[in-house]
Amino acid sequence: MTAPRRLALFDLDHTLLPLDSDYQWADFLARTGRAGDPDEARRRNDDLMERYNRGELTAEQAAEFMLGLLAAHAPYDLALWHEEFMAQVIRPAFTARAVNLVAEHLRAGDLCAVVTATNSFVTAPIARAFGVPHLVATDPEYVAGRYTGRILGTPSFREGKVVRVREWLAGLDLTLADFTETFFYSDSVNDVPLLEQVTRPIATNPSPALRDIAERQDWTVLDLFDHTLDAKS
Asked: Are 6 and 111 in contact (CB under 8 A)?
């Protein structure tokens, strides 16, 4: 089989979506009474968001809360609730510009993947809804029919995204060097390690910090949204 000539990687939160799916999932569980103490869940969710924005959050710290929400419930219930979440929160946030951006790469025959720090339980249905066939996400550990609340393997966060993308490509007998062009679309300064690895880094709806870097590095800046639906940058 002939390898695709181009690779297109997409961050998800605040890049293809004008919101943070991890934050919104926790908020959805809290306001529907499925996250224990709703007020405490919202407080912790907001705290994680603020620490992320300051660049002070580790993948392990985020997992303690976010993956703990998965560990607290049966997979059957989680799947049912995620269907509600998709209908009420995610699908209404899709924009034509983001959908068309992905579709252009797919029509061109590019190898496409969503590469996100958010866990694969939350993001796999979202990637499918965009039509993206591959997902590189933080994987929650799953043992004996339950989520454990722990991360499985390397989290897809900061330098970990580079590691995970290389591992995914290796599984396809490919490397970044096998492509004539490699694109990565992202909004976050946390993704600079992967943006520096591709030939076409595209700062998409960038945070102020990433916009400054993009301007200094002469990277393309793409604004898909007029505004975002939560506070994460």
From this structure: yes
